[in-house]
Amino acid sequence: MLKAIIIDDEAKARRILETFIIEYCPQIQILALAQDVPQAVKAIQKLKPDVVFLDIEMPGYNGFQLLDFFGEIDFEIIFTTAYSEFALRAFQVSAIDYLLKPIQIDQLIAAVHKLEKIHGNSFIRERMETLQKNLEEYKLKKIVIPLSEGSLFVELNDIVFLKAEGSYANIFFKDGNKVIVSKNLKDYEDQLTLEEGFFRTHRSFLINTNYIKHISSDGSEATMVNQSIINISRDRKQEFANYMKQKHVG
């Protein structure tokens, strides 16, 4: 059984989440409820939870500042938030779980199941730093790549392109290295959008357009800075051409 603490400055929000966890997540034991960060710090130090359900916007200290009170982080964090669509995408690529207010039961159950899988191998401080960096200027800068032996924290501008490999994806970096991950290309397409310069040119390729060296005269291929040849599918050619024209003008 996983031990938990709920932190939220709104009493009603604490009660609702507590009720949902008791009713739908029997694998979670709630140790305490806290209304602010100072109260939460004392509870965490005393009770040693496995997970903290943490509100972000609170008076005094916000949720992100909780980690400032700890040298070593040995508990997982699931944020509860009413953040915007962009911010939620920042949470996803930073591998930080969240519950969007008002909390949905199926979302809570999914978050707890995910927690059970990663518990004990969380790299929570690194993932939090990645999240905060992504949120700073409202533009994604880093992404967490799950590997069998842990997690890789990568700057987006280090990625040249991604190539589908069945249900896996190969990620190619500007330093010549590559990794294979057990996520498909659609997962990354949903996370890395035109805003960050990424474009799905083909069912097999998602590229960082900042690293295009040359586009063929017929618009069917792009050569990347690492000399890789990327296919541009017929049904994406016009959209890709329009995007690159707009990007160049911008």
Descriptive report:
With 250 residues, the chain is of the alpha/beta class. It folds into two domains: 2-136, Response regulator (Rossmann fold, 3-Layer(aba) Sandwich); 142-249, LytTr DNA-binding domain (OB fold (Dihydrolipoamide Acetyltransferase, E2P), Beta Barrel), CATH 2.40.50.1020. The protein is 32% helix and 31% strand. Strand 8 and strand 9 (168-173) form a beta hairpin. The longest helix has 14 residues, at 11-24. The model has no long low-confidence stretch (mean pLDDT 87).
Strand content: 25-35%
CATH T-level topology of the largest domain: Rossmann fold
Rg computed from alpha carbons, rounded to a whole number of angstroms: 21 Å
Shape: elongated
Specify the CATH homologous superfamily of the largest domain: Response regulator
Write the layout of secondary structure elements.
Layout lengths: L1 E6 L3 H14 L3 E7 L2 H11 L3 E5 L20 E6 L3 H9 L3 E4 L4 H14 L5 H13 L5 E6 L2 E6 L3 E7 L2 E6 L4 E4 L3 H7 L6 E5 L2 E4 L3 E4 L5 E4 L4 E3 L5 H13 L1
Parallel strand pairs: 1-2, 1-3, 3-4, 4-5
Antiparallel strand pairs: 6-7, 8-9, 8-12, 9-10, 11-12, 13-14, 14-15
